[in-house]
Amino acid sequence: MATNRTFTMIKPDAVENGHIGAILEKITAAGFRIVALKLTQMTVADAQEFYAVHSERPFFGELVEFMSRGPIVAAILEKENAVEDFRTLIGATNPADAAEGTIRKLYATSVGENAVHGSDSDENAAIEGVFHFSGREMF
Ligand code: RTP
Ligand code: MG
User: Fold this and answer.
1) From ligand 1's centre to the CA of 69, what distance in Å?
2) Which H, E and C letters describe 56-103, residue by residue?
3) Is this model's pTM higher than 0.80 or not?
4) Residue of the CA atom closest to atom 26 of ligand 1
5) Which residues lie near ion ligand 2 (Cβ < 5 Å)?
6) Which of 19, 54, 117, 132 is catalytic?
7) Which of 7, 35, 51, 62 has its CA 20 to 30 A from that of 122?
8) d(C-alpha 28, C-alpha 64), whole Å
9) Residue 43 DSSP code
10) pLDDT by position in tens, the chain (length 139)
11) For 111, which DSSP code?
């Protein structure tokens, strides 16, 4: 089977709580190859653009404030069936509903502050990767 790519962010809550190393270890142990990786911070405008699909949702303001409040780790990951397998690895949006052993079950604190992002389609993975990385930063 051909490999494909997904995009992830370790969100500000998980960075603040010191979970970068543990989360990257879970990701690589699950067989994902790191194609691109950096510590960065989104501006309010960046977060509004990145999550524009949710702009009409009641939690949008909170989401933008949260995602721009501190550094994140952005990464592009490669594996067979990357998008779907990564969403399985991170677990449900709400950590209360996430399966045992998933990254959100282990490290998320609430439905809003849920430790990690994972792309929801191959198309969005490509868009989100280019949002954060230049071609020279992808390996
Ligand atoms: P993500 O895009 O970050 O990987 O999360 P997801 O697909 O599991 O969930 P999505 O529906 O795309 O929601 C995006 C992010 O918005 C925040 N959220 N807050 N307060 C709330 O009810 C609520 N619902 C969603 C979360 O940070 C969620 O990951
Ligand atoms: Mg989503």
Assistant:
1) 16
2) CCCCHHHHHHHHCCCCEEEEEEEEECHHHHHHHHHCCCCHHHCCCCCH
3) yes
4) 112
5) 120
6) 117
7) 62
8) 28
9) -
10) 688 999 999 999 999 999 999 999 999 999 999 999 999 999 999 999 999 999 999 999 999 999 999 999 999 999 999 999 999 999 999 999 999 999 999 999 999 999 999 999 999 999 999 999 999 999 9
11) S
Question: What does the block give as tokens for 98?
Answer: 């996430």
What's the CATH code, domain 3-42+71-137?
3.30.70.141
CA–CA separation, 44 and 64 (whole Å): 6
- CA separation for the pair 53, 60 (Å, rounded): 10
d(CA 93, ligand 2 centre) in Å: 8
Residue 99: count of CB within 10 angstroms of its CB:
11
